[in-house]
Amino acid sequence: MQSIINFPTMKKALLTLMILCFAGLVMAQEANENEFKMTIGDTIVWKPFENCHSNGYNISGSKVISLKPIKYGDRIEIIAKQAGECNIIATCHEDNAEVVASIIVSEPYVAPVIEKMEKPATQAFTGTYKFNPPTDHYFVTIFNPASNCSETYMKLGENEAYNDGQGIDRFWNLKTGKNWYYRPEAQGWTDDVDWEFEPLGTSFFPLNTFANEVEKDDLSKYYLGMEQVLDIDCWHFFVDQPDGSAIQYWVDPANGCTLKRQVNNDAPRAVTVYDLNYTRLYFGPSFKKSLHDTTR
Fold first, then answer.
1. How many beta carbons lie within 10 A of that of residue 187, not counting itself?
2. E strand or H helix at 16, and its extent?
3. Which of 193, 201, 203, 275 could form a disulfide with 139 if both were Cys (CB 3.0 to 4.6 A apart)?
4. How far is residue 43's CA from residue 55's CA, in Å, rounded to a whole number?
């Protein structure tokens, strides 16, 4: 649906008064701006021309916005009514100049309601927490429910590898700087630019989460007892947050690494392969037998 509105403007002497009267509106846009992203209920003021005494407006999508001239129509007030898109073509009749405003209206953001979790009974924590993550000879796979994929981290001496389960599969050497990526559709492990990689570092998510996220002054406030993850007896902590949410951690007492982390009732991020005595490579570019060998 289109509608055309024409507003003759008065003398320039009135412009200063108009600017003062409407300076308190939510937002004023400059003449050269022509795309506005709004949410339902927002109000903006658009002035398409700096100097024009006779403006016209051609509107498409009048259900999306409502439009009201300010004073004599050299600017208009735009109110977002419903989600959608529309255009406003402003014409200066004095010289037939045109400016198009594109309006995109979206639903307002609604913060998710956090379901407050009932905190289980805690008990005295008599252990000693110390974070001592593995620094070598490990092969660790973690299920990430956000991507519904498993991420793998491997370190054996100077060799490191990472696979995100979604197509990123890399292998590099910290001593030589040699770097490879895996292309199963072409030639398997393929040379990449030397040194263009990020070393795994001292630890990674979620192994380091309890160490980084929780104050250790009184762990009895959070300790629920022992619970097994991957046949390992883990410390189970329930840490309530100021906003009413909660994060649970299942921690390996041997090294302080978090093997499972869960926010509220969401699916947990959990370790599924936990080999800290990884001593023999069975994949990588050293296993490639020819240019077209696609063996991982």
1. 15
2. helix 15-21
3. 275
4. 20
- Helix boundaries (H) for 33-166: none
The confidence score (pLDDT) of residue 30 equals: 38
Per-residue H/E/C for 158-213: CEEEEECCCCCEEEEECCCCCEEEEECCCCEEEECCCCCCCCCCCCCCCCCHHHHH
Q: Which amino acid is at 189?
A: W
- Half-sphere exposure at residue 120, Cβ-oriented, CA atoms within 13 angstroms: 12
Strands 188-191, 179-183: pairing kind: antiparallel
Dihedral sign, CA of 55, 56, 62, 64?
Answer: negative
What residue type is assigned to position 166 of the chain?
Q
What lies within 8 Å, CB to CB, of 135 at 6+ separation is 155, 202
Query: Residue 6 — very low, low, confident or very high, per pLDDT cuts 50/70/90?
Result: low
Q: Would you say residue 205 has pLDDT above 80?
A: yes
Distance CA 79, CA 86 (A): 12
Furthest-apart CA atoms within the chain: distance in Å = 85
SS3 content of the chain, % helix, strand, coil (to 5): 5, 40, 50
Q: Is the CB of residue 87 less than 8 Å from the CB of residue 103?
A: yes
**Residues 146, 205: Cα–Cα separation, whole Å:** 14
**125 neighbors 223 (Cβ within 8 angstroms):** yes
- If you average pLDDT over each of 19-33, 110-124, 150-164, 282-296, which comes out highest? 150-164
Q: What is the DSSP letter of 115?
A: P
Give the three-state DSSP class for 85. strand
